[in-house]
Amino acid sequence: MRNVGSKVWILIMIAGTAGLASQCGGSDESSVAGAGGSAGRGGSGGSATTGTATGGSLTGTTTATGGSTATGGSTTADGSAGTTATGGTTGTDSGAQTCTGTGDCAPPTPYCDTQAHLCVACLGDPNCTNSGANTHCDTATHTCVRCLDNSHCGGTTPYCSPDHTCVQCLAAGNCGDAGLTCDTINFRCVRSCASSGDCPAGTGTPYCDTARGVCVQCLGDTNCANTGNPYCLMPGGRCVECLSNTNCGGGNPYCQTDLHRCVECLTNTNCPQGETCRADFSCNG
Questions:
Q1: Claim: this prediction has a pTM higher than 0.70
Q2: pLDDT (tens digit, 0 to 9) for every residue of the chain, 285 residues total?
Q3: How many domains would you assign to the chain?
């Protein structure tokens, strides 16, 4: 009887020890994975990306300027980095004059684009009647231009170039002479060449731009010395009045870098108080 009691006592002790072990000794795998961090919020103006997940939480988002706020990306339950956040819309150019109607605008951008709420130079061709040869409105940029297609050109410049000017050619086939090719920087028919010896002096393009294989007016400023336009505009190889404001002075101190000529004004701020800069880049005083 005593032996039976001892065995029962031993069994009870073993069972108790096993139960204690199951409560106290569990492996690390029983621990709960850290919850993912909260989704970040992207900065305005561009896409925001979630930062590095550290210790189960998400840290850091980037901030952009302008535009609407973007919603941040998601995180995973184990604390790893989540998905990329969707970017916000791009902000408005702070230099443009905003408007709700044409009465809010003044030259050289006297019309209100009521969809974009920005003052522009034109909304249609009738707005370009005082812009010299630029009688057509490019509604993509709201600027007055010379042409929108070939039907607006003629004579010796029958083609409308990508920058909306009437030109002599757009491709070699427009030149009608096997010895000529189209200089697609200046859009003029010129002789093809391998050296300056291939470029006749009397044509106005006596130098060979060997990289492009076309005859040009100049390769450097020294070639423009007697042309009245002392600076060589590269890579086109054309003599112009100015390349920057430092080339201008007197009553026309600004270089209009589309035409490369010196002008009185580029914006209203270049004119005396109360005057505006007209489409021909002169002040209306």
A1: no
A2: 444 444 444 444 444 444 433 443 444 433 333 333 443 343 344 433 333 333 333 333 333 334 443 344 443 334 343 443 344 433 444 457 899 998 999 988 999 999 999 999 999 999 998 877 889 999 999 999 999 999 999 999 999 999 999 999 999 999 988 888 999 998 999 899 999 999 988 888 999 999 999 999 999 999 999 899 999 999 999 999 999 999 999 999 999 988 899 999 998 889 999 888 887 889 987
A3: 3
Percentages (nearest 5) of helix, strand, coil residues in the chain:
20, 20, 60
d(Cα 244, Cα 267) in Å, to the nearest integer? 16
Q: Are residues 206 and 266 in the same domain?
A: no
Q: Pick the last residue of a domain from 149, 177, 207.
A: 149
Q: What is the span of the domain harbouring residue 275?
A: 241-285
> Phi-psi category of 241—alpha, beta or left, where left has phi over 0 and alpha has psi -120 to 50?
alpha
